[in-house]
Amino acid sequence: MKKLKPHYVLTQSQRNGVFALAAVIVLVLLGIVLLPSFFTKPVFADKNLEKLRMQVDSLRRIDSIEKVKRQQKIYPFNPNFISDYKGYTLGMTPEEIDRLHAFRAEGKWINSSADFKRVTKVPDSIFLKIAPFFKFPDWVVQKQKKNAEKSSTKVKLSYADKVDLNKVTQADLQNISGVGEVLSLRIIRYRNKLGGFVDDIQLKDIYGLKTATRIKILEKFTVKSGVKPQKINLNTASVLDLVEVVYFDYELARAIVTYRKLHEGIQDFEELTKIEGFPAYKLDRIKLYLAIEK
Q: Do residues 235 and 292 lie in contact, with contact meaning Cβ atoms separated by under 8 Å?
């Protein structure tokens, strides 16, 4: 019986060609499926990258704002006239600023640090930072002094009978009405920083110490001992000399020397108040450490 032969027979070269064509078709199909993924970024990667970029930008903005706040100097000001912008730079919230403005809109005035704290309800972290720079009109300060004098019915002690302010203990100070643990510790620490009080008026530098309370302290205590500082001549002192004064930092010392050179000397202490950033309200204490000689 004869075997049937197929109608067509491929040669070896033809078979190779078929295989080659099939391979090409497979490669083309794979290319169509796979190539787009090489040129398209994953959506999740784009979202994560954008989110990370936004977080970095946000941190940079916060850091920039904080840096400006740290570099910004605070000068004495009347808390009755804090604007929205001023309040923001001091670290107050809009609610705290609104409370102050509402209080002032009623025709009322802030006449003490305690009034400011009570009205605005600012946290201690902000209050402790800005309260030392409150500057009230002279008539307010004088009124506080008069009230303190009227409320004092005790017999006035003579200089000889008073205790040396440079030797009092924290417990001694707490015997004064209005002086608690915090204030007494603050006074002792400041006294140590100065190396001893030079004059009674340096109690003005104690943060949170009201005029009335300061008067009560000085009814029993006064500066008797301590090393009197050798006064620095403003017309010959270098920047480093002036930095030794507890009330001056490097920038202010340099500004004083620059002013002196431009004006060919300093004639009186009042000239210092013309220098930008000079703490004029502390001039009576600053004079304890300075002299003006030709």
A: yes
Q: Which architecture does CATH list for 153-222?
A: Orthogonal Bundle (1.10)
Burial class (CB in 10 A: 0-12, 13-18, 19+), 24: exposed
pLDDT tens digits for range 161-213: 999 999 999 999 999 988 989 999 999 999 999 999 999 999 999 999 999 99
Token pair of 282 as six digits: 């502390």
- In tens, the pLDDT along 9-60 reads 667 777 777 777 777 787 777 777 666 655 555 544 556 677 677 776 666 6
> Which residue, chain included where needed, has tokens 């940079």?
60
Report yes or no: 187 and 203 within 8 Å, Cβ to Cβ: yes
For 130-149, write each residue's pLDDT tens digit: 888 888 887 777 776 676 66
Where does CATH 1.10.150.320 sit in the chain?
Answer: 153-222
Identify the pLDDT of residue 20.
76
Q: Residue 157 is encoded by which pair of tokens?
A: 């002690």
CATH assignment of 232-291, given 1.20.1250, 1.10.150, 1.10.60, 3.90.1520?
A: 1.10.150
Sign of CA dihedral 255, 256, 262, 268: positive
